[in-house]
Specification:
This protein has 2 domains: 9-80, no CATH class; 88-319, MetI-like fold (Orthogonal Bundle). It has 16 helices and 2 strands. It has helices at 23-32, 34-52, 70-73, 80-86, 89-122, 126-137, 144-155, 160-167, 181-209, 213-221, 226-237, 239-250, 259-264, 270-273, 276-284, 292-320, and strands at residues 63-64, 75-76.
């Protein structure tokens, strides 16, 4: 008796690739969406002119650039400007300052924005919630000049902070906050928090509202309290948003700021207040020692480090299975 075996054939894979448009279909589609294409073209041209075309100026970093001679007449020095940067103790100092203030801003702004969004979400009175939210993001629209003026007036010897400390008998005489190196980074971090926490919390609030309410109801049935709902429902629900924003903001670690450090800085705190942007300004635009090449080299270093942070962090997020940029 013969043994008969039946083999099942695997279903053929369907080709789901979208067929290309013919020339006639392309013309028809172009006529139908020409307004959107025109609007998109404006932004493409804008990006090419103002974001990519200026990159040609990076050639200055490899020259001893002289304005009178231009790109073609300036002497090529190769990596000489980069070698000078990394042998300059001042540049190494400003890297430390920029990185430290950037990390402080990133960590505290992320934590405070998430915390503030969660607290606002827990408010039950809509009118009170909207009022607090409106007040909280108003400082975002203030220029850094105004913010620095407020911070400076509050921390001077006759400012409100010293008045409170002396009235409470904590100090006997005004404390010179703006003249102490140890206080400069905390002051900069606090200024960023005061200005941007409310604005940064908006996107987290939007992410919280997208969480399925059934999850909170299920948690209530299981006996979860308010804190447990936050920990096991709210935070995991906004984790993808947190990861995406964290990856994007990692590229801005070296963009620790310019205005507040430049305006609040003085000779007494110079060693902790100078950032890469201020260093570039000193070399590229200072009338005493104009060196466009050195300033450009410092800017290229800053861009390279920012791109490295984004690529490495995105790779790690991909390996761990978290949300990523690409």
């Amino acid at each position: 008796m013969e043994n008969t075996t039946t083999t099942s054939k695997a279903p053929a894979k369907q080709d789901v690739t979208k067929p290309r448009l013919t020339a006639e279909e392309f013309k028809k589609e172009f006529k139908r969406q020409w307004i959107l294409i025109a609007i998109g073209a404006v932004y493409v041209v804008y990006g090419l002119i103002f974001n990519y075309l200026p990159l040609l100026g990076w050639i200055m970093a490899f020259q001893d650039y002289k304005y009178a001679k231009g790109f073609t007449g300036s002497e090529w020095v190769g990596l000489g400007k980069f070698q000078f940067l990394f042998s300059d103790n001042t540049f190494l100092m400003v890297i430390r300052n920029t990185f430290a203030m950037g990390v402080l801003n990133l960590v505290f702004s992320t934590v405070f924005a998430i915390g503030f969004a969660i607290l606002l979400n827990e408010v039950r009175h809509t009118w009170f919630k909207k009022t607090i939210q409106t007040i909280s993001y108003m400082p975002h629209f203030l220029s850094w000049i105004i913010v620095v003026a407020i911070v400076h007036d509050a921390l001077t010897s006759t400012g409100i902070i010293n008045e409170i400390l002396m009235n409470l008998k904590i100090v006997q005489k005004p404390y010179p906050f703006l003249q102490k190196e140890a206080w400069f980074w905390p002051i900069v971090t606090f200024s960023h928090l005061w200005k941007e926490t409310g604005w940064n919390a908006i996107i987290y609030l939007a992410a919280i509202t997208s969480i399925d309410p059934c999850l909170y109801e299920s948690a209530s049935i299981d006996g979860a309290g308010r804190f447990q709902k936050i920990w096991y429902v709210t935070i995991p629900g906004i984790r993808p948003t947190i990861m995406i924003l964290l990856l994007m903001n990692l590229g801005n670690v070296l963009n620790a700021g310019f205005e507040i450090q430049y305006l609040l800085g003085n000779d007494l705190v110079r060693d902790v207040s100078r950032t890469i942007d201020i260093y570039i300004l000193d070399w590229a635009l200072d009338g005493r020692n104009i060196d466009f090449s050195l300033g450009t080299a410092a800017g290229i270093f800053k861009t390279f480090v920012s791109m490295t942070f984004i690529l490495v962090s995105n790779y790690i997020a991909k390996k761990k299975g978290d949300e990523r940029l690409f």
